[in-house]
Design goal:
Chain B: It is found in: Periplasm. The complex is a heterodimer of chains A (327) and B (332). With 327 residues, chain A is mostly helical. Chain A has helices at residues 2-27, 34-59, 67-84, 90-114, 119-138, 150-154, 165-183, 185-195, 197-202, 207-233, 244-254, 266-285, 290-315, 319-326, and strands at residues 159-160, 163-164. Chain A is built from 14 helices and two strands; from the N terminus they run ααααααββαααααααα. In chain A, a hairpin with a 2-residue loop joins strand 1 and strand 2. In chain A, helix 2 (34-59) crosses helix 11 (244-254), helix 8 packs antiparallel against helix 14 and helix 12 packs antiparallel against helix 13 (290-315). Chain A is globular and about 55 Å long. The chains are: A mainly alpha (327), B alpha/beta (332).
Chain lengths: 327, 332
């Protein structure tokens, strides 16, 4: 019953996505061509990865607003290291990016876990702190494309089987998340903690630790995205991805992940991100006045959420039962 | 009670942070240089120019500040804190020509000299405005940059910042005004990248998809031109689509190297910051008065002549290409 409902919601979203693509195709022929769809997927890779990280956090009834700042700080740090020491191999830089992201995510997590500060307050604070650290680190300077090594910029663009590495990274992370969320006890713990934290305690789940883990994973993914973003756009500056945290939350919400916690699927987060990514890519080619673009993006979010809200009302929070049985 | 102590401590700390500079050197003429946002290479370079002017003047002090994002709200907060610090002059590059006017009028009532530079403020909100160049000259330059590399004519598109940017809109208007000199060139679209790297990149991609025969993208904004050059490079259209407009040599060096951009232009921001500081100093020390027709000294940059709107232009934009990029890319 549960699985059926969730599946149908994703089916609705997938249908909406296909309808959107066809609608754009009718205004701008060539949009639905496989090559272009692949480039839309590639363009949305970062949003998908971050939406998955954010999903874990939201599942546990928390929210992480610092993801975009985390991304910008790690991106700037890797670009600066690359510019200063071009000899350092790129895999090492990526490891550094993930490591930095993990630390920043864990910092959020520890404040939420040990000091019991509301997550929105913690991450609103770290959003500003991490963004501010970029100023301190870079002194306001840009790192430009001619200062970055060819290998640094080239990796996300390198094509394997017709898709750039960046898209493959997203695919790998999506698959990893499916396993994590549906096949591991940690994955079920995220749902249990968000579904009913008090009941989760009685099943032997450490609520704080589970939240900490969610923040840490999300942070690590943001760190990885920091490298991907800066390498893709070949420029690092303080305003990188400013405001992107809200796109990530919007993608989750469109994907049917309940802000109240405990409800959401990997497929939903991915489809939500793709929906938003498709709109972003479609607006420039659809010949719509730029003055309308923001209103259209916003309307799409509200319509999607209205659909989801209706879905949730009928369903209630049955997810706790299945979570209890599983753990 | 405990809450009160905490609040008091917080306020003292905030006060100490804001008033930190106030304690030092009261005798100096304190000139606040307000940027559109901090962390933008252009404004950092202008701040260096202003510092240079301060050193030359001897008894001037530059307070370089601005909001962390390009919003008028952020600038209003900055202006209010500068009023509280009782600076002698405020020189602002406005994010919105009208929104900052009330705050700036308050500053003028307190006896603070207010001028705008780079991106202007409505005349009632400032004593004078120093445009980096005249809008006419910039408008003519950006289309000429594109036209120089398309002898047979063709299609060009404009990638601007936000749809409300004061100076971008003025330049595009001036550009369109001289289009009759280029009968073979058609401006097919004007799109807005909002000065965000990812949105500008996507808009540039969209332009290339919508207009497969596009010959040039004119981006009169430093974020947009870099993003467009990267998009052209990634689309494998180097040599087909020439990206030009206004950008900084350090940020565009890679695009010139890859061939995505043949040439671009910019006035020298160091000179602009220098000239702004000189003007602010001369007005704040009452050595000159801002009135139509007045000629005010700008140190090594000559003199600024004010027009009926109390606006002056500094100089023409300068063109950068493969022949001189290496010389300038490490400067700004």
């Amino acid at each position: 019953m549960m699985a059926g409902l969730l599946k149908s919601r994703e089916a609705i979203l997938a249908a909406a996505l296909i309808a959107l693509v066809l609608l754009v195709e009718s205004r701008f022929s060539g949009f639905a061509a496989p090559g272009n769809l692949a480039s839309v997927f590639n363009d949305t890779a970062i949003l998908m990865i971050l939406a998955l990280g954010q999903m874990l956090v939201i599942l546990t009834r928390c929210i992480d607003l610092s993801l975009a700042s985390n991304l910008a700080l790690t991106g700037m740090a890797t670009a600066m290291v690359n510019a200063a020491m071009p000899g350092i191999p790129v895999p090492l830089l990526i490891a550094m990016a993930i490591g930095m992201g993990l630390v920043m995510g864990a910092f959020n997590g520890i404040l939420v876990w040990k000091l019991d500060i509301p997550p929105i307050v913690v991450t609103l604070g770290t959003l500003t702190i991490y963004r501010g650290l970029i100023f301190i680190l870079s002194g306001g300077q840009w790192i430009n494309s001619h200062e970055m090594s060819a290998a640094y910029k080239g990796l996300p663009r390198f094509e394997i089987l017709g898709l750039p590495v960046m898209a493959w990274v997203a695919v790998a992370i999506i698959l990893g998340f499916i396993v994590l969320v549906t096949r591991t006890s940690l994955g079920r713990a995220f749902y249990a903690v968000g579904g009913n934290p008090h009941a989760a305690v009685y099943t032997g789940i450490d609520v704080g630790r589970t939240r900490f883990t969610a923040f840490t994973i999300a942070g690590g993914l943001a760190g990885l995205c920091g490298y991907l973003w800066v390498a893709r756009y070949a420029v690092a500056y303080t305003d990188v991805a400013e405001g992107f945290e809200l796109d990530v939350v919007a993608a989750c919400v469109i994907g049917g992940i309940s802000i109240a916690g405990g409800i959401g699927t990997v497929g939903g987060a991915v489809l939500g991100a793709l929906f938003l990514g498709t709109i972003k890519n479609a607006l420039p080619v659809a010949g719509i006045s730029p003055f309308w673009q923001m209103a259209i993006s916003g309307a799409a979010i509200i319509i999607a959420v209205a659909f989801n809200a209706r879905g949730e009302r009928t369903k209630g929070r049955v997810i706790l039962k299945s979570a209890e049985h599983a753990s | 009670m405990k809450l009160f102590t905490k609040l008091a401590a917080g306020l003292t700390l905030a006060g100490a942070l804001m008033g930190g500079t106030a304690a030092i050197a009261q005798d100096n003429v304190r000139i606040a240089l307000v940027a559109k946002s901090l962390g933008n290479g252009f404004f950092e370079a202008a701040a260096r120019g202003a510092e240079e002017a301060a050193e030359e003047l001897g008894n001037a002090e530059i307070i370089y500040t601005g909001p962390t994002s390009t919003t008028a709200e952020g600038q209003i907060e900055v202006i209010n804190s500068l009023i509280a610090q009782q600076v002698d002059a405020i020189a602002i590059s406005a994010n919105d020509p009208d929104a900052v006017v009330p705050a700036l009028q308050r500053a003028m009532q307190r006896g603070i000299t207010v001028i705008s530079w780079d991106s202007g403020v409505a005349p009632e909100g400032r004593e004078m405005h120093l445009a980096p160049s005249s809008n006419e000259l910039i408008g003519q330059t950006i289309i000429k940059l594109a036209a120089d590399h398309m002898p047979e004519g063709g299609q060009v598109a404009v990638l601007s910042a936000t749809s409300t940017s004061t100076n971008q809109n003025a330049w595009i208007e001036e550009m369109n005004a001289v289009m009759d000199q280029y009968p073979d060139i058609e401006v097919v679209a004007t799109v807005y990248g909002d000065d965000l790297a990812d949105k500008s990149y996507r808009e540039a991609q969209g332009l290339m998809q919508s207009y497969p025969d596009l010959d040039a993208i004119i981006a009169p904004t430093s974020v947009g031109i870099v993003a467009a050059a990267q998009a052209v490079q990634d689309a494998g259209k180097v040599g087909e689509v020439n990206v030009t407009g206004l950008g900084l040599p350090s940020e565009m060096a890679g695009a010139i190297e890859s061939g995505a951009s043949e040439s671009f232009a910019i006035w020298n921001p160091v000179d602009l910051g220098y000239a702004t500081a000189m003007l602010a100093y001369n007005l704040a020390t009452d050595e000159a008065t801002a009135e139509p027709g007045a000629e005010i000294g700008m140190g090594r940059m000559g003199t600024a002549t004010l027009d009926d709107d109390n606006t002056a232009a500094m100089s023409e934009p300068f063109t950068y290409d493969a022949s001189n990029i290496d010389e300038y890319k490490d400067i700004f």
